[in-house]
């Protein structure tokens, strides 16, 4: 993929309609950039449901087991300490720390997974097609095959215009 | 989607998306007003006072405080619990109201979360300084050491270490993940190279891709789901610091729910105090409307009433239990030498918020501001009453004593107020105070224009 066309809408409902028309014409939409999450886009672009929830669950489970296990190991195996005659294996009093570690592991693992899967992070470079895509423009990026002749590209641009998109530009 | 025509718009003034961006982000680009400079100067002076008090405490030790053999916990712990409680409103707004799909939260969640982070920093300062030797602060974490000792996992103070540090870390991540799209907007609007570079770095390469947004929403929802029980657990554990002891007045099972609602109560009061000033100073009255203030006031009535019921229940149970010491502890609170503190607490927390039953008062900015200050004061006194009155009549009458803070303790408290306002004033200069993308997301369904045209 070397070439692509960007075009924008000024309203998210026009965008959703436009995406439907583009798909009907067989255009390949690479990405849609919006200033805020537009509901219905995930369906229009056939996006998979995010698997981040699983990361959160698994990491949380690991945190719970580690948190509880660590305390239990310390107080029963490594260094049993008589604290006011309380039992060494004091399940209720291990709960708060186990709970906090569950939340901590779950939250951090999920956020790290979020950054990694999106390739976001400190210093990550953003490819900015249009500076107003984070303001009030809803940008569509359409793939253009390298092998396409100029007239085929014209066709795509025409199809975009018909779908109501503005500011249609070919970029390499 | 059907929206009730009777429901008033969340955002006033016929905004379109561009106006929303401009309104919220333009104060960041301009020069700060003279009120901002005045505010940060005052806060800076308070911070310096705190620095002096910190120096005295570290250099000469805890003896600089007014604590004694009987009263080992004074202002330090009072301030700690007060600050943690204030933090709770931010998480309540951003997590619990998100789960309940309360759209009005979008105008206030960003600054409320920032308030949470700053308040937790202020709170964490007190246990650390109370150790006396700040350098040995790391002793509270369980790490393999040459003494072959671990920390005491049966102690609520140790649970606090985990609760507060997890709370801070998760709140920070939650806040920052929500901030990233808006930082992208700031980057794309930046006019100077330096601003572009800084916000480009901070925005983590955000573009607004639909895939990113989809994951962003999942992450926000799950983080809210994690933060909601977390915030409840934090103040529950803070209350365990008292409830698991055997001191009459502390050893009560009502503490966890009572502390949590008190925390949300005081937190909302602080959010109102800050928001009423911020909306005026940054011209955000169309975003933080009277409806927002009214909604928060309703939460204040609810949580304030829960706190009031808890006070009365405590009293009733103290008498009904038939335990002489318990009865005495509560009788002494209301009529003993610290009765003045008790009645300040009762007036500010139980009586003043009830004024919000009147719609006129609920929707009055000035009265809300005044009452919010009352609640802040009342909730500080609640912690003071719990800590000091329970301790000052010890089991042995020979150790009965009184406690008053020294200038160093006052300095530490004023210092954290200075830190709080300094950081908050810096926050409103460098970050968007309102979640721009989230407001845009509710504009269609709840904005004024759409209401008029029947759109959406």
From TrEMBL, chain A:
Keyword Transmembrane helix part of the UniProt annotation: yes
Coiled coil: none
InterPro entries for the chain: ActD (IPR021776)
Tagged with keyword Ligase: no
Residue spans crossing the bilayer: 55-74, 94-116
Keyword entries, A-Z: Membrane, Transmembrane, Transmembrane helix
Protein name in UniProt: Quinol:cytochrome C oxidoreductase
Organism of provenance: Sunxiuqinia dokdonensis
TrEMBL record, chain B:
Location (main, coarse): membrane
Membrane topology type: Multi-pass membrane protein
Keywords, ordered alphabetically: Cell membrane, Membrane, Transmembrane, Transmembrane helix
Cell membrane is among the record's keywords: yes
Membrane-traversing stretches: 35-60, 80-100, 112-141, 161-179, 219-238, 258-278, 299-320, 340-358, 365-391, 411-437
Pfam families from the UniProt entry: NrfD
GO cellular component: a single term: plasma membrane
InterPro entries: NrfD-like
Compartments, record wording: Cell membrane
Entry similarity comment: Belongs to the NrfD family.
Name used for this protein in its record: Quinol:cytochrome c oxidoreductase quinone-binding subunit 1
Organism expressing this protein natively: Sunxiuqinia dokdonensis
